[in-house]
Amino acid sequence: MDKEGRKTINQGQEDEMEIYGYNLSRWKLAIVSVGVVCTGGFLLLLLYWLPEWRVKATCIRAAIKDCEVVLLRTTDEFKRWFCAKIRFLSLETHPFSSPKSIVNKVSNGHAVHLTENLPEENRHEMSRYSQTQSQQIRYFTHHSVRYFWDDTLHNFDFLKGLDEGVSCTSIYEKHSAGLTKGMHAYRKLLYGVNEISVKVPSAFKLLIKEQYIMLHDMVAAHSTVRVSVCRVNEEAEEIFSTDLVPGDVMIIPLNGIVMPCDAVLINGTCIVNESMLTGESVPVTKTNLPNPSVDLKGTGDELYSPEIHRRHTLFCGTTVIQTRFYTGEFVKAIVVRTGYSTSKGQLVRSILYPKPTDFKLYRDAYLFLLCLVAVAGVGFIYTIINNILNEVEVRAIIVESLDIITITVPPALPAALTAGIVYAQRRLKKVGIFCISPQRINICGQLNLVCFDKTGTLTEDGLDLWGIRRVENTRFLLPEENICNEMLVKSQFVACMATCHSLTKIEGVLSGDPLDLKMFEAIGWILEEATEEETALHNRIMPTVVRPPKQLLPESAPAGNQEMELFELPAIYEIGIVRQFPFSSALQRMSVVARVLGDRKMDAYVKGAPEVIASLCKPETVPADFESVLEDYTKQGFRVIALAHRKLEAKLTWHKIQNIARDAIENNMDFMGLIIMQNKLKQETPAVLENLHKANIRTVMVTGDNMLTAVSVARDCGMILPQDKVIIAEALPPRDGKVAKINWHYADSLPQCSNSSAIDSEDIPMKLVHDCLEDPQVTRFHFAMNGKSFAVILEHFQELVPKLMLHGTVFARMAPDQKTQLVEALQNVDYFVGMCGDGANDCGALKKAHGGISLSELEASVASPFTSKTPSISCVPNLIREGRAALMTSFCVFKFMALYSIIQYFSVTLLYSILSNLGDFQFLFIDLAIILVVVFTMSLNPAWKELVAQRPPSGLISGALLFSVLSQIIISIGFQSLGFFWVKEQSWYEIWRPQSDACNTTRSLHWNSSDLYNETEIDSRNIQNYENTTVFFISSFQYLIVAIAFSKGKPFRQPCYKNYFFVVSMIILYVFILFIMLHPVAFIDEVLQIVCIPYQWRVTLLIIVLVNALVSIIVEESVDWWAKCCLSWALNCREKMPKAKYMYLAQELLVDPEWPPKPQTTTEAKALAKGNGSCQITIT
């Protein structure tokens, strides 16, 4: 039964789940129904929040194949439970044709079967889905994804589109013709409507609805677009975008469109704005997917992937700005994913159904509630025993014993905690920081390390062209600043700058990557694109043409000039860009194929990272001093780009170039030289980083730029101090039977190290024993490495990874997925990691970090939890300050709600001992007038104006916090008990009756006698007595006293006296309670069921309250000192070990003589144990 009743779905993926089958049980349903009625609906609420209990209480186990309900459990560390009802999809009543022919065309949950279109090849497919002769398919929906039963897998699987298991060949051969109407209808039946629906819950169900409204508005943009699709008979049909299914061939209109699905281009070119997904506002050029059937290299078996082929994929939600097309051919794209399966749908799902946040505060919150439940249990038992001994009727026993539970476990706690987060979210919005994951605000208060992207984050987005270094005869020429001149206009170097880019004209304005724009503007050339009329007259795509201004062209080519490469040109000098291979961050380069007007052969131009370009060039064309020249510029902080050129063979025709593979072009190049770009620091960068360092927050640079450039920028911005040493870890993978190894170099002495065998002891950084292990700079050395080294270290040197994370400061040439791996590695040593990037290549890292903030102008970016409207890193300290304030507010609210529960619990317990209780209006006054007002105003304290080195505790279970709560509980109980027992010792005290005249005034006597009937009615519950009045007044003041004591300001929040709403509320409540205590008002006393007490006792109560306030505030102010003393005394017998792994590791490394590695040493992985990262150090 267990084997049949338990399966695993989404195996190996992030959302992997175990699935169990159940059938509804009538007798269990009947028992649960009775239980719901008996508990007044409480059992129903409990089962609603606990899906596992709900299913097991109402169902019995069954085989998954035949079950009616499925129970799902995630396999991650959270082990969350979900349930879903099995539904049936009937296919027998379709109007177009019988299921036996057309239905078989539908995918069975494996994308490869979706590629088949011939009936004879697919007769078996529907049988894998259908369970009966009536052609019904069983499925369930979980987190907006449908899972269908597959008979061959004997398991449920979600329906995939063309994004998995489909080769590029089949994209053209089997899908480019479009779908028949029958096939489209059946696919729509299975895939459903192409929409991303976000329902906005009602105000009663949702405390924070802003996020849902924003998502609803964002995803609704494309819901009613009309689109044209091609059918098998080549006719176009206009349908709603909600009717699109995978396999439809969509025609992209000339005037652009907001993409309603994910689709792969098969004809034409598109200019697309992808800012909605990536936060990057620069338009991207999308070209058609290469057709492997005509590819010269014949890579026909390559599988299509939206991520690998993203330069050919139009993603849902992105805006197509412009299109270019063939004669008689539309710009066409094949739909590969729809609805929640699209890239946009997956992002929306990640927001609607986020993974739980594993934060100590929230774990401790459950422990806190369990403690209160235990206290409630004690009170529950005490109440029952006390009432039985006093022979109280059963009904009263039940009511009072349940009453003590509701008093002890505060129902307003979730709302109180949410209020603090909402206020912090509003304050962040005022400073231009938008949040789509409010729970992350608290976590940001714990950040102790922040990773920064370099370009556009620490430095200006734009680059200034500093100059060029051309190469002639394998030697670098002198630097040249002015490129826009007659001598260079016809050189291959300038031709590369003019053609090797992704610029395009949008409404007549040159647009594209800022780097490409700067380079193109520097040469002063003109870019012309074919008009719609021109593209309609030719069978091939009209090329983009670039040409220099006429004033730069010499009237005749200078003869005998051997120093310049000159083209043999007619009077008109133009270059057409024939084919473009867009920039890839993984390859770190881009290339183009171009042809000079009148030239027989075409030219290939490549630009990119110097190290990458040099590796693609013939060794004899690369200058011998290439590395030293490159290092010279990068150490000064310049951004360096290399250019290369190659003359292509004459046999490569225009048609062949359109289908040639990138690798066939990008090899055997001639190295042409370097372009040196200046990347200036943003004005606010050094000051922000200095503030973070003062607050003991580590800063790390993770960039795609050159390593030495990154190190230079890190020094300039203060990330690495002038006296600090930088150790470069150069890791090499196993090769030719040799194990992987790491070569250690010192960045400041790289050139000298190669010729020196002696090591100067002064070059080895010293380790300082420092009290504060939070300070990342105590050892005064930093590690720097590139992406390739980082990958090798992760694979072969796992034991070194934590040590490198402790002092790794610069990570260069990092691919997007490596940035995510870095964040994970830092989190593995217990850092709370923040990530600040531009949102383009940092999406994975921004999501993975505890606090990811994207510098984008888009308010509703879904790429990261936080988005800054202003592209400045000054948002990082603001976010941390607000996070700390919100975290401290959460602690204050927790402490206050704990004291509120215990104070009221003890008040009621004392009164239960004399068979009394607080009155209904007393409860109402305390809960509404005091607690609700206090909780929602004490959360309004804004953040402190600057970051401090101290961090707030991460959890509720800390010495200081527990000492604070316990001391206040003892104080409150003590003063309540004092008042309760002392009042009985007074000379005027007697068991209160309506005729009692403790006040000894005619007015009081008259009031009591006039309301004799009413008092007798109320007194049946023994509410009115001297003990009740005394306890009510003392406890009312105690709520206000602990509220003030717990409303701490510095160093994380502004002082409470600057929280004007809180101050005004406190004053009003204090004045009101003092007034009714010292000067009784008959109406108020009657409503609150307060009895008249002598004036001397009122003054005594005032003295008790004042002493209580004084003691509470003194103890709370000295709580940090007391907690430190008690903890040091408790731990003096044993050495305190740091809780965080990185702090423990720092202590170990302080006494490690082999760390940090010395210059010119090598660390090798052991051949037999490279899997577990064991290593040995050898001196070379």
UniProtKB/TrEMBL annotation:
Annotated membrane topology: Multi-pass membrane protein
Span of domain P-type ATPase A: 227-351
P5B-type ATPase N-terminal domain span: 13-150
UniProt KW Transmembrane keyword: yes
E.C. number(s) listed in UniProt: 7.6.2.16
TM stretches of this protein: 29-50, 365-385, 405-424, 891-915, 921-944, 956-983, 1029-1047, 1059-1083, 1095-1115
Keyword Membrane carried by entry: yes
SUPFAM superfamilies attached to this UniProt entry: Calcium ATPase, transduction domain A (SSF81653), Calcium ATPase, transmembrane domain M (SSF81665), HAD-like (SSF56784), Metal cation-transporting ATPase, ATP-binding domain N (SSF81660)
GO biological process terms, semicolon-separated: intracellular calcium ion homeostasis
Catalytically driven reaction(s): putrescine(out) + ATP + H2O = putrescine(in) + ADP + phosphate + H(+)
Record NCBIfam families: ATPase_P-type, P-ATPase-V
Function field: ATP-driven pump involved in endocytosis-dependent polyamine transport. Uses ATP as an energy source to transfer polyamine precursor putrescine from the endosomal compartment to the cytosol.
Family assignment from sequence similarity: Belongs to the cation transport ATPase (P-type) (TC 3.A.3) family. Type V subfamily.
Name listed for the protein in its UniProt record: Polyamine-transporting ATPase 13A3
Gene: ATP13A3
